[in-house]
């Protein structure tokens, strides 16, 4: 396999025959028959690889596929390997090095086919007198295929040079010859970027946590409608992927946006007409109810590889029946979730919500808070949550009350979300330290909540397995060991809580929050 790939743009009127003639002046050259190859670029739903500076492409070759992982821009190949099947997750890859490196980047996300390019490729091989290949040269005529269509866009032609190990000096001479005679120049734009541009795809535009730039004097109703509309658009963008179960992150981002909408609707109810708010809040509570079970199972399945490492080696294989059981439960719950998400009720709800948020005419029964400046309403709301957090946290004196910590976790999550949403209203040098202290507590409480739920859910799933399928004692032992591990880790978070809480509750931090958010 080539260890290096150099990509050059093709000057106008340059042909493969020109390249061949120039090369023949120095060395023998063989030309292969033109080949048509389909290359599919894979990435996560949110273009995680692309935005990290990488490209993953897979093309067909007998008896399977050729996977190429390279850097975006220059074309430097990181790993190139033959694979039998197209992977859905990094864990599906056989090569441990590739599996680990891609896994660290993907964080459990699914690999999806994002862009398809059909290439007519013509190849030259520079050879020596023993017919040994010294370098391969390809001219590619690429066409970016429009999804779900036979239409395509022609892309700029490119020359690909593949120097082979052991012949670096010869490769340098060939390269100098081609760049001088053929006026080849390194590409200014990666072929994938060219394909994205032709197809009108912006791979850098997606975020599930949009940043806002409020005018402090903007009416609260108008500002909150802007935020809620952004979350509505995120839900809309992720609905199809969530229903089709393409990637767990589609549902994650859908539910993330829905929960943030819930948070604002419940906390800032005084800004909205009461009749409107009561109906919409019920609809979002309904969405939470129908999507949460699938999301929980997605989380457990995403964590399963870590779960396996938390039990002794003799019980690791015994956890696999639990994985299969969770996959079956996920399939069942997903079918149940998909029906209401594709129902007329859901469409009516979201269409009505869209009309409300984008209406140029304000409701007639607007409350007084609707017209107040957003900085006044946001500051009052944030400060009230902070006081609630500090007050309830001060009552927790030991690790014996998990319910109190769970309640506190909900409060700190609301506080963090609202501080991030309205961040631009406050001096960055003042709000950044407050957020940093809050994140210390968030990490603790969020980890505690996850471990607490895992501990309880694992025991519940063990009971369900015994009720629904024939189980073996070693399976149940493995689940009990895993649940016990989760309980131990949960206890560690309880012990660490006080120090994290004290950072946020100390006198100078209270003073900072008061100065930033207190209405008085």
What can you tell me about this protein's structure?
57% of the residues lie in helices and 15% in strands. By secondary structure, the protein is an alpha+beta fold. It folds into 3 domains: 6-199, Hypothetical Protein Pfu-838710-001 (Beta Barrel); 218-357, CHAD domain (Alpha solenoid), CATH 1.40.20.10; 373-520, CHAD domain, CATH 1.40.20. The longest helix has 41 residues, at 428-468. The protein starts with 5 loop residues before the first strand and ends with a helix. The model has no long low-confidence stretch (mean pLDDT 90).
Short overview:
It is built from 17 helices and eleven strands. With 520 residues, it is an alpha+beta fold. It has three domains: 6-199, Hypothetical Protein Pfu-838710-001, CATH 2.40.320; 218-357, Alpha solenoid (CHAD domain); 373-520, CHAD domain (Alpha solenoid), CATH 1.40.20.
């Amino acid at each position: 396999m080539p260890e290096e790939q150099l990509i050059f743009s093709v000057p106008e009127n340059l042909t493969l025959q020109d390249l061949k003639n120039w090369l023949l002046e120095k060395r023998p050259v063989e030309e292969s028959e033109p080949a048509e190859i389909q290359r599919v670029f894979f990435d996560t739903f949110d273009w995680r690889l692309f935005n990290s500076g990488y490209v993953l492409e897979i093309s067909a070759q007998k008896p399977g596929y050729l996977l190429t992982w390279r850097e975006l821009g220059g074309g430097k190949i990181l790993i190139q390997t033959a694979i039998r099947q197209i992977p859905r997750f990094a864990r599906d890859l056989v090569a441990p090095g590739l599996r680990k490196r891609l896994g660290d980047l993907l964080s459990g996300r699914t690999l999806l086919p994002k862009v398809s390019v059909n290439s007519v490729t013509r190849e030259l091989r520079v050879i020596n007198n023993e017919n040994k290949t010294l370098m391969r040269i390809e001219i590619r005529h690429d066409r970016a295929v429009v999804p779900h269509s036979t239409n395509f866009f022609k892309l700029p032609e490119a020359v690909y040079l593949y120097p082979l190990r052991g012949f670096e000096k010869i490769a340098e001479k060939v390269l100098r010859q081609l760049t001088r005679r053929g006026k080849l120049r390194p590409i200014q734009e990666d072929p994938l970027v060219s394909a994205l541009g032709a197809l009108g795809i912006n791979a850098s535009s997606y975020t599930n946590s949009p940043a806002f730039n409020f005018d402090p004097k903007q009416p609260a109703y108008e500002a909150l409608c802007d935020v809620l509309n952004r979350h509505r658009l995120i839900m809309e963008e992720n609905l199809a992927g969530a229903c089709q179960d393409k990637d767990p992150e589609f549902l994650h981002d859908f539910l993330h946006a829905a929960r943030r909408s819930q948070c604002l609707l419940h906390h800032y109810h005084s800004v909205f007409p009461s009749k409107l708010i009561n109906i919409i809040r019920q609809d979002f509570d309904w969405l939470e109810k129908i999507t949460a079970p699938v999301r929980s199972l997605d989380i457990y399945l995403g964590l399963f590889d870590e779960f396996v490492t938390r039990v002794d080696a003799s019980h690791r294989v015994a956890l696999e029946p639990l994985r299969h059981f969770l996959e079956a439960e996920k399939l069942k719950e997903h079918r149940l979730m998909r029906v209401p998400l594709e129902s007329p009720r859901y469409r009516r709800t979201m269409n009505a919500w869209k009309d409300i948020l984008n209406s140029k005419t304000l409701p007639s029964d607007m409350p007084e808070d609707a017209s107040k400046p957003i900085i006044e309403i946001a500051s009052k709301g944030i400060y009230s949550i902070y006081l609630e957090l500090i007050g309830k946290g001060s009552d927790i004196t030991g690790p014996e009350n998990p319910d109190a910590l769970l309640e506190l976790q909900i409060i700190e999550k609301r506080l963090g979300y609202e501080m991030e949403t309205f961040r631009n209203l406050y001096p960055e040098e003042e709000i950044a330290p407050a957020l940093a202290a809050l994140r210390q507590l968030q990490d603790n409480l969020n980890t505690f909540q996850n471990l607490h739920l895992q501990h309880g859910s694992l025991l519940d799933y063990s009971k369900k397995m015994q009720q629904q399928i024939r189980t073996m004692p070693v399976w149940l032992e493995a689940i009990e060991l895993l649940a016990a591990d989760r309980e131990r880790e949960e206890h560690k978070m309880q012990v660490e809580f006080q120090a994290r809480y004290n950072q946020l509750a100390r006198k100078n931090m209270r003073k900072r929050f008061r100065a930033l958010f207190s209405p008085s």
